[in-house]
Design brief:
The complex is a heterodimer. By secondary structure, chain A is mainly α. Chain A folds into 2 domains: 2-35, no CATH class; 56-376. Chain A is 62% helix and 0% strand. Chain A contains 15 helices and no strands. Chain A is globular and about 65 Å long. The model of chain A is unreliable at 235-241 (pLDDT under 50). By secondary structure, chain B is an alpha/beta fold. Chain B has a domain at 383-448. Chain B is built from 11 helices and 19 strands. Chain B has helices at 116-125, 164-168, 172-185, 199-202, 221-228, 242-254, 285-288, 392-400, 404-409, 421-426, 433-448, and strands at 3-6, 31-34, 44-46, 53-54, 59-63, 70-72, 77-84, 90-97, 133-135, 139-140, 149-153, 188-193, 208-213, 237-239, 260-266, 274-279, 298-302, 309-311, 323-328. In chain B, the strands form 4 sheets. Chain B has a 7-stranded mixed β-sheet. Chain B has a 5-stranded mixed β-sheet with strand order 16-15-19-17-18, with no helix packed on it. The longest helix of chain B is centred in the last third of the chain and has 16 residues, at 433-448. The model of chain B has no long low-confidence stretch (mean pLDDT 93). Classes of the chains: A mainly alpha, B alpha/beta. Chains A and B meet through helix 2, helix 3 and helix 15 of A and helix 10 and helix 11 of B.
Chain lengths: 400, 449
């Protein structure tokens, strides 16, 4: 790899101040530090450093998302085949290929738009490019329905990166989760592509892969939660609604691309918890909050069909697991104090179920619950830190 | 029995090249330097010119704000140079030794019969007062203050640190006299480690001894203060290094100044890491020459890997330094895709690396930062290695934003830059925390004083 290093050394001067390609300095810088660990040594303070850096942390998160992404791709193909009535004659591999063909353009668009903005801002502010979008860029395609058009995805990504992140000062300074803001943007600006019965299953072939679903209007492919809101039982009555527990766990049901498979998300959760990248306090308390609230509703609201979904099913349906594992644990937008993390997590879990049960218009509450608690997190931390401050003040008055 | 304080948060970094309990004799250096930058807060007024002859104890400069606070020559000989930098700032006063170490004569005194003012006066006159630091602000103490207490930590828990029991051997009587002298000024708190068995420490007289157990930073005097009686706003606590207590003892017992230290040469690039008797401020050439590997470009550190300053092979030992550490500057540079590679040989507290698999392995860590500076992203990184009742992240943020009220409320009076050294080591955002804390303390001091 010596020639690559030599080549970079050779072209480096033209990207520096006064060089011909100075306008692309942030791009060069980004790729150089991506390819080679900088040889910079410490100038002040400690003379040695831990090998961990934010590139490593972000890449761990991306790795932990891969199982959910791959299973999500397979599920897209599977749902398409079921809808077209050819599930028995389609191999799992061609289902996966179809899912890949549908998902890849979304990933490419999300990264191209987001990183484009990041590089421009880094160039403008004369800063190093930050890695935060590596994670957001893969999260955004995973939390939208398969039917979301690319131009809306691009618009949402641009909105989220600019107004949820860059205006606050970039990675580490944002208040709300960037990927969720992208989703919320679609949710409020283009509700028809992210809710209802028609968007969760791909109905047209792509690159000659997949099957066309005839009579699209007659086929409903709502998510499990949508059915529950409509009053249909999860298992039993209508044939297209029957969901076995196994389907729920592996995620063979309609839903956003990455959110359906509990098993794949669990693999990601293990990676995140083992490496310590995500906080177990938050993850644990989101589930605890969800269970408690679902049980409470189960006892108190016998007429409400959503409240009657068993608590454990609430946790494995919809975006609950995905949100708890990958979204709530975002270190920047979650509570930062240890005590605060418990409160923050419980709040998300409880609020998600409250929205699911009490809101008649929209079946899923995880996104709004996390966004709400993102906004609340600084206040939770403020209260926790304030108790330390008042203890110190008490110590002082006791002394006097 | 003494009170035992257990510390659970912290980190012992297992580095290659810890000094063994053995002495290597080195030829005394020819040049010795006193660097005003070591004495934080002090604006020096130099009182010697090149070619002046001095004895051990003759002042080289004094503090402009407190003219009675003298900084004295550690050797006898003649002044070789007064080095100045930008805007005539004094960088160092260099003295060429005549090899005799002839001291100014002071009278040997029975410290326990002296008053606090008499002890202070003796220390000021002999230039030993310069070794007192104070909390808040972690600066050189002001002689006219009346401290609540004086804290001495008798062990250093940093990686590759010196074992004070080795320095103490043969100096037990002077150490006790030094503690006696301090106890005349204010109540003295001695922090020792549960691993220390020397009688001079375990049954030291005229002090309140506390035993600390746990990983680094258990040996940091700031942690010891915080865990016994935290510094409140308006209070002043003095701290002094354990070896400097021996200097004080020598003054009162023998009536002479003797700045001989037990200095360790440590680090992965040192052939036989061990101890040597070296006088304060010595040029380190004689200490390091011929004793280091030359596989890599080397970084010579005046002090510890966590808190020391980068120097050169012909640099000088700082006034407070008890060791010289030598590590590689860059080892295996131009690392390709390092953030994704397994990096088996690298040390990290994160489980995304594999060093947790071999807890007893000793590591060589070079001086690379291994990442770019970012905003604070991960939470709870600092808390894991910061055993004080303070929220380090929030304190750092208050300092960065210059919020004086918040700094006070969050406990800045209790900390020194060295307390944040471990946080800086583990920080994945690679912020220069010790520099940030130093600037915060300076800013606050400028506002308050």
């Amino acid at each position: 790899m010596k020639f690559l290093r030599n080549y970079l050394n050779k072209v480096k001067p033209s990207f520096e101040e006064g060089g011909k390609l100075h306008a692309f300095r942030s791009l060069f810088d980004g790729f150089e530090t991506f390819l080679f660990v900088p040889n910079d040594t410490s100038k002040s303070g400690v003379n040695i450093h831990d090998a961990i850096d934010s590139k490593r942390i972000m890449s761990i998160v991306v790795i932990s998302l891969v199982p959910a992404l791959l299973l999500g791709m397979y599920n897209i193909g599977l749902q398409n085949a079921i809808a077209a009535g050819v599930a028995d004659s389609t191999s799992w591999f061609s289902m996966f290929l179809f899912g890949l063909a549908v998902t890849l353009p979304k990933i490419v668009v999300s990264y191209a738009v987001g990183l484009g903005i990041e590089f421009t801002v880094a160039q403008w502010k004369n800063e190093e490019i930050h890695e935060g979008f590596l994670v957001s860029g893969i999260l955004i395609p995973m939390i939208v329905p398969v039917g979301c058009p690319l131009w809306i995805l691009a618009l949402a990504t641009a909105f989220a990166v600019i107004f949820a992140k860059e205006v606050f000062g970039g990675t580490g300074m944002n208040i709300v989760n960037v990927a969720l803001v992208a989703r919320a943007f679609i949710f409020f600006a283009y509700p028809s592509v992210i809710s209802g019965d028609a968007v969760w299953v791909a109905t047209e072939p792509v690159f000659g892969l997949g099957a066309a679903v005839e009579n699209v209007d007659a086929y409903t492919c709502a998510t499990a939660l949508q059915h529950a809101v409509n009053g249909a039982p999860l298992a039993g009555a209508a044939p297209d609604v029957v969901l076995s527990t196994q389907d729920m766990l592996f995620g063979f049901m309609p839903g956003s691309i990455g959110e359906t498979s509990v098993v794949a998300i669990a693999i990601g959760a293990v990676i995140l918890l083992w490496t310590g990248v995500a906080s177990w306090r938050i993850m644990f308390s989101v589930f605890a909050g969800g269970i408690l609230m679902a049980m409470l509703f189960g006892y108190t609201m016998p007429e409400n069909p959503v409240a009657q979904i068993p608590a454990w099913q609430h946790l494995i349906l919809g975006g609950f697991c995905f949100g708890a594992v990958f979204m709530a644990t975002d270190p920047v937008t979650s509570a930062r104090t240890e005590t605060g993390k418990y409160i923050y997590g419980l709040g998300i879990g409880a609020m998600a179920i409250i929205i699911r049960v009490l809101n008649p218009g929209y079946p899923e509450g995880m996104m709004l619950a996390i966004l709400l608690m993102n906004v609340t997190a600084p206040f939770i931390d403020y209260c926790v830190v304030q108790s330390n401050i008042s203890n110190r003040a008490k110590r002082l008055t006791k002394k006097k | 029995m003494h009170r035992v304080v257990k510390i659970s948060k912290g980190l012992n970094i297992n580095l290659k090249g810890a000094p063994v309990a053995d002495f290597t004799s080195v030829e005394p250096a020819r040049l010795y330097a006193l660097m005003p930058a070591d004495f934080t807060r002090v604006t020096p007024k130099v009182v010697v010119k090149p070619e002046d002859s001095v004895k051990v104890g003759d002042p080289l400069f004094y503090d402009k704000e407190n003219p009675e606070l003298l900084f004295v020559s550690p050797v006898s000989g003649k002044v070789a140079a007064v080095n100045r930098g930008e805007r005539r700032r004094v960088l160092s006063v260099v003295v060429e030794s005549d090899g005799k170490f002839e001291s100014v004569e002071y009278k040997a005194k029975d410290v326990l019969s002296l008053s606090a003012d008499e002890v202070k006066a003796s220390l000021l006159k002999a230039g030993l007062f310069a070794f007192f630091r104070q909390r808040p602000y972690d600066v050189i103490a002001v002689p006219s203050d009346a401290p609540r207490a004086i804290y001495v930590s008798a062990f250093d828990s940093k990686p590759l640190a010196v074992n004070f029991e080795i320095a103490l051997k043969g100096n037990e009587a002077d150490f006790q006299t030094g503690l006696d002298a301090l106890s005349r000024i204010a109540p003295v708190h001695l922090g020792i480690c549960s691993c220390q068995k020397s009688q001079a420490l375990t049954v030291a007289k005229n002090v309140t001894t506390t035993i600390f157990e746990g990983p680094h930073p258990a040996g940091n005097v700031g942690v010891q203060i915080n865990r016994t009686a935290p510094v409140n706003k308006g209070e002043i606590v003095w701290t002094i290094g354990a070896e400097e207590v021996i200097f004080i003892g020598r003054l009162f017992n023998k009536g002479k100044l003797d700045f001989t230290r037990t200095v360790a040469l440590a680090g992965s690039e040192v052939k036989n890491p061990s101890y040597s008797k070296v006088v304060l401020g010595a040029q380190i050439s004689n200490l390091v020459n011929g004793r280091v590997e030359n596989k890599y470009e080397l970084r010579y550190i005046d002090g510890n890997v966590l808190t020391g300053k980068k120097t050169a092979a012909d640099g000088f030992l700082g006034a407070f330094s008890t060791e010289v550490t030598v590590i590689p500057e860059v080892m295996g540079g131009d690392e390709m895709l390092g953030w994704a590679a397994p990096r088996f040989g690298m040390y990290s507290t994160s489980r995304s690396y594999f060093s947790w698999l071999s807890p007893n392995r000793k590591y060589t860590i070079d001086a690379r930062i291994k990442g770019g500076e970012r905003h604070m992203i991960m939470s709870n990184e600092y808390d894991k290695v910061f055993p004080m009742d303070i929220y380090p992240e929030y304190l750092i943020k208050a300092i960065i934003t210059g919020n004086i009220d918040k700094m006070e409320q969050l406990g800045i009076y209790e900390v020194a830059p060295e307390d944040f050294a471990l946080c800086e080591f583990v920080d994945s955002s690679k912020l220069e925390l010790q520099r940030i804390v130093r600037e915060g303390l300076d800013k606050l001091r400028a506002e308050m004083c």
